[in-house]
Amino acid sequence: MDKARIDPSLTKLLKERGLYLRKAQPGQHVAHEETLLVRVADGSPDGFQVGHVVSAAGGMTWIPYARTGGHHTSKVGAGLLSFAAAVQAVVEHARYDDILRAVEAKSGRGTTYTAVVDEGHAEWLAALEEPKGITNLGNGRVRFTESAVAFLRNPPMPLSLYVQVHGADELALDLCSYKLTRDR
Q1: Which of 42, 66, 71, 122 sees the fewest Cβ atoms within 10 Å?
Q2: Nearest 5°: CA angle at 164, between 125 and 146?
Q3: Omega of the bond prior to 45 within 30 degrees of 0, cis?
């Protein structure tokens, strides 16, 4: 499969999340396997690696690995039949909100999102210890930093039972769905 020609929706998803793909340097991984790195733009020339996909069975299947918190990387699938499916698995499981938070702190600016939710939900969201970067603006309006949205795409249990971000613009909260609007 030509890795440069992945599904346009996956290409769009990578771009929306500030992610990009890089081929691993020779000697970085096992020689007979092909490895592609999934990196997040963090302001450095090479970005920060949040996962990788490795070819297996002579290139017939792919194994995805994702950063699942701190410095820990976990296998998040096995035997996937396409490169695109493996990359999708990395995108769905990778945790990199701390990297985005550091970029926001260093630059003093960042992308924010706003949602209009039930006022009780707004208070509950703003009171969460994690993620950082959620502000109750009043009247049910809630502002999220990009790092908070990244955290909520793959929140840990039990938080994931109550709140999660789906796609680029949907906040699922207590069986209710709210639109996230990108501010800047």
Answers
A1: 71
A2: 75
A3: no
| 125, pLDDT greater than 90 | yes
pLDDT at 100 over 90: no
Q: How far is CA 164 from CA 59, 81, 121, 149, 160, in A?
A: 34, 28, 13, 9, 6
Rg of the chain over all Cα atoms, to the nearest angstrom: 17
Distance between CA atoms of 49 and 67, rounded to whole angstroms? 8
Can you give the pTM of this predicted structure?
Answer: 0.72
Question: Which tokens is 29 given?
Answer: 């991984």
The pLDDT > 90 percentage for the chain reads 34
Q: Return the DSSP state at 167.
A: T
